[in-house]
Amino acid sequence: MRAVKNLLVLYTGGTIGMLETPEGLAPAGGFEVRMREHLAARSDAPQVQWALCEMNPLLDSANMQQANWLAMRDAIVEAVEHGGHDGVLVLHGTDTLAYSAAALSFLLLGLPVPVLLTGSMLPAGAPDSDAWDNLVGALRLFECGLEDGVQLFFHDQLLHGCRASKLRSEAFDAFAALPRHRDGERAAAIPSVLDYRQPRQPVKLAVLPVFPGLQAEHLRGLLDSGVQGLVLECYGSGTGPSDDQALLDALHDARQGGVVIVAISQCPVGSVVFDTYAAGSRLRDTGLVSGGGMTREAALGKLFGLLGAGLDVQAAEHWFALDLCGERA
């Protein structure tokens, strides 16, 4: 851990910098001026040298797409490799903040600087807003020193980038890391193909919860759309309708056809352990890969990082089962 001397603030949009428009709150430019004015007026402002880069376009994070993750990754790598920055603060909307933190965790494997994401539930300048508290709190962490890797800071909580989820839509303590079981063996080293210097490509991914009434044709319709990876949110410890042979056949055929299918628990505090029930074992036998106690955000972000690097099915499944940055251990 070391104090950051030359911080990049990457402003992507989100509530923290929104201003009122006739249609409602919307992302607005010019946040650097507002941020410098606020810090200059504070006697306790952190003493961190920083520069701000404004993404184009600025986003309400409900509009976040894979292309935006890739653009953030490119901006961060450029700032570190060529801009001399030794830390990055990403200002981001809360709706997809945990998804972006997870995706960046796998897009930036091995990056030798800390990356911290934060945002706010109310815009900076709004009465009783949490915006400046979150932003100044994040700056203080850079001033004191942070470990390398991706983390999320919100409402005085520092959370692992792959373990955070948004649990509340209105309260300031909107994010938490739920105590999901970790069981993955740590990878001995990060392969060069997954290093942060490796460019990534968009990937066709999907998330599907198991529910009473899920039919094989529902699953086949999704898989026939060209999906390369699927996060299947199972019941409890990784169970599903194991007496529906058509559904099991659809999963098996998809795996044989080159789709990576990973299983996580849809329980907020849960973990996949296929062998607990026969209903789980039958799902596993179709070719599903256990996500253990990974969150939806982490599983989706990891699939994106692996398949986006061009890994084939076997390699993607191998690395998915191992812990790469603390998501499974």
UniProtKB/TrEMBL annotation:
Domain (L-asparaginase N-terminal): residue spans on this chain: 7-178
Annotated binding of substrate, by residue: 61, 94-95
EC code(s) of this entry: 3.5.1.1
Family: Belongs to the asparaginase 1 family.
Family matches, as PROSITE patterns: ASN_GLN_ASE_1, ASN_GLN_ASE_2, ASN_GLN_ASE_3
Active site per the UniProt annotation: 15, 94
Protein name: L-asparaginase 1
GO cellular component labels: cytosol
Record key words, sorted: Hydrolase
Superkingdom, natural source: Bacteria
GO biological process: amino acid metabolic process
One annotated GO molecular function: asparaginase activity
InterPro entries for the chain: Asp/glu_Ase-like_sf, Asparaginase/glutaminase-like, Asparaginase/glutaminase_AS1, Asparaginase/glutaminase_AS2, Asparaginase_C, L-asparaginase_C, L-asparaginase_I, L-asparaginase_N
Gene responsible for this protein: ansA
Residue intervals of the Asparaginase/glutaminase C-terminal domain: 206-320
